[in-house]
Amino acid sequence: MTNLIRFSPHTEMRHLQREIDSLFENIFPVRNSDNTDSVAWSPRVDLSETEDAYIVHADVPGMKKDEIEINYQDGTLTVSGERRMEETQEDKKFVRVERSYGRFYRAFTLPQTVRTQDITADFEDGVLTIVVPKAEESKPRRIEIR
Question: Domain residues for 107?
Answer without folding.
Answer: 43-85+98-139
